[in-house]
Amino acid sequence: MKPLLLFSLLAVFSTLAFAGRDFYGILGVPRDASMKDIKKAYRQLAVQFHPDKNKDDPQASAKFQDIGAAYEVLSDEEKRQAYDRFGEDGINKQQHHNANDVFASMFGGSFFGHQHQGQRDTPRGHDVPIDLHVALEHLYMGRFVELLRSKAVRQAAEGTRQCNCRQEMRTTMIGQGRFQMMQVQVCDNCPNVRLVTESHEMELEIEPGTPDGFELVFPGEGEPHMDGDHGDLKIRIRTEAHARFHRVGDALYTNMTITLRDALLGFSSSITHLDGHTVPVVRTGVTSPGTRLVLDNEGMPRHRAPADQRGPLFITIDVLFPAHVSEPANLERVLGQHSHQSHYNGHEARFVPIAQQ
Q: What predicted TM-score, i.e. pTM, was given to this entire model?
């Protein structure tokens, strides 16, 4: 009976020690999961249950809060060790951040790009804007980018300093019934600090279809303020020029050169897309120079939309003419055409045929 009683008591104590939410279960990872697996699970679940994406699901917000709390604890080695020993009750709940702040630190801003901000009662440092040039292939398929961020942070130093300086109006009596008002600067005495440079790794996600100029905002990663908060780091996505494709919004544009024989008789060809898949291009009959083929759903992914939603791909046909003709008389007979020219306003006339592939 004693061993059985001891086992029962241990089970009760174990249940009490780990009272609270199962953070590993919330993220769907084992207790020995690596940091990489924890980050990967959080990314997928945070996007899946973000309230901005699930406005019709009243439970999505609660799930999102649980996911953020789980990631905040399990991504911090010290908090994770405390949680493994004592459960959620062993974590100082006052240290938990808002789930939107956790999301912003991982993805940069909120789900639709607008930054979650509360009211600021303290001054803040300058924001740091950075342009990040990204290859078109990575904007098409998506990619995770690791950055080494070096920034100035406050560190305690000896002595005191003037801080929270402000302008106040002072009234002084200069005689009977006479007063003088003047503006003076008033400061508080604060513990002294100094600025030191610290470096840490950051990871940001280039989502499929991220638009050119899209801004990822990382709160608190900007310049420091001696009496307030850090500014934000704002990373703007810039699209690198590509050798074969040009992007305009969700559409992709490319050109294909064919021979005169192909232009007259038709052809069957293909182009290699940004992710390596093959797009067939087939034409029968005559194809005029400048013909623009439209291939629906072969353009860029629509940002933060279902994976099967993509823009169009436009293929402009260029015709390679021979350098010389050996038998012009026979060619005129075969073509069945005589010399003819016309003069018109090319800017206004819709003379370029558009074909649906």
A: 0.67
